[in-house]
Amino acid sequence: MSDWKNNIDLKRLPRHIAIIMDGNGRWAKQQGHLRIFGHENGVKSVREVAEGCAELGVEYVTLYAFSTENWNRPKDEVDALMSLLVTTLKGELETLNKNNIRLRAIGNIDSLPEKCAEELKDTMKKTEQNTRLNMVLALSYSSYWEITEAVKKIATDVKNNNIKVDEIMPETITANLNTAGFPNPELMIRTSGEHRLSNYLLWQMAYAEFYFTDILWPDFRKKDLANAIIDFQNRERRFGKTSEQIAAEQTQ
Ligand code: IPE
Ligand code: IPE
Ligand code: MG
């Protein structure tokens, strides 16, 4: 029987996959619908990816759901996205718990409408014991915002004599980001044929492998996730070393 995950090497999975879920608006437009129809249909793809990552044993999947810059979209679309978030969270709680998935969030959660922030916090609380997969939603998120907040926290720590300027290390920055404690994403997937990062996890993805596909987000399925992971597994990650060094390390 051919299974979607047949060609994946389960011993060499990325621990953390970051996804830019893009192309909902174009998907809807192609079918003569309003943009929100695309967002609604993107929820199925989120489910597929969450299930897929859980089945495989990926530990973290971080989904870019709403960027700081997305606040600049027409008010109707922003409102519709926020209410879609609330209904989806309500509707998925049972499935998250059944699949042992923990919901988490990064971004400026307090900038979300109160109802959204509450529903989100409630779902996070009710799934916090789950251990199979961390599903992280990036909401009202941008790296510029996140890094600026980290700088403010570190500056305050310096002012309060909790740390000296000379003691600030890359690890200090990492520990002050919203993703503190998460492994860095090893694989970044962006759908819809756009080749850019759009202010996403800039610090954390310093050494991530990028995978771009023309598939629009509402069409993204488990087999597409598998293709991205297989592509990732065929790459040589050198981290600044030479190919010969990497080969020697692997035979050790
Ligand atoms: C991604 O799809 C979802 C969000 C940004 C919220 P888009 O809404 O950006 O869809 P396109 O890129 O306009 O097709
Ligand atoms: C990035 O997509 C943000 C999300 C997927 C939530 P956009 O569609 O907003 O990105 P740009 O504007 O095309 O770079
Ligand atoms: Mg887009």
Explained architecture:
With 252 residues, the protein is of the alpha/beta class. The protein has a single domain, classed as Decaprenyl diphosphate synthase-like (Undecaprenyl pyrophosphate synthetase, 3-Layer(aba) Sandwich). Helices cover 44% and strands 14% of the residues. The chain has helices at 24-30, 35-56, 75-98, 114-126, 143-159, 170-175, 222-233, 243-251, and strands spanning 16-20, 60-67, 101-106, 133-141, 187-190, 209-212. The protein has a six-stranded parallel sheet, sandwiched between helices. It starts with 15 loop residues before the first strand and ends with a helix. The relative contact order is 0.18. The model has no long low-confidence stretch (mean pLDDT 97). One 3-methylbut-3-enyl trihydrogen diphosphate (IPE) is lined by residues 20-22, 64-67, 70, 194, 196, 198.
Keywords:
single chain, 252 residues, alpha/beta, Undecaprenyl pyrophosphate synthetase, 8 helices, globular, binds 3-methylbut-3-enyl trihydrogen diphosphate
Low-confidence stretches: none
If helices are DSSP runs of H or I spanning 4 or more residues, what is the number of helices?
8
Number of domains: 1
Give the quaternary arrangement of the chains: single chain
Total DSSP E strands: 6
Lateral strand order in the biggest sheet? 3-4-2-1-5-6
Portion in helices: 40-55%
Q: What fraction of residues sit in β-strands? A: 5-15%
User: What is the CATH topology classification name?
Assistant: Undecaprenyl pyrophosphate synthetase
Radius of gyration, CA atoms, in whole angstroms: 19 Å
Shape: globular
Helix-strand category: alpha/beta
Helix-strand string = EHHEHEHEHHEEHH
Distance between the termini: 36 Å
CATH uppermost class: Alpha Beta
CATH superfamily: Decaprenyl diphosphate synthase-like
Largest sheet: 6 strands, parallel
| CATH architecture call | 3-Layer(aba) Sandwich
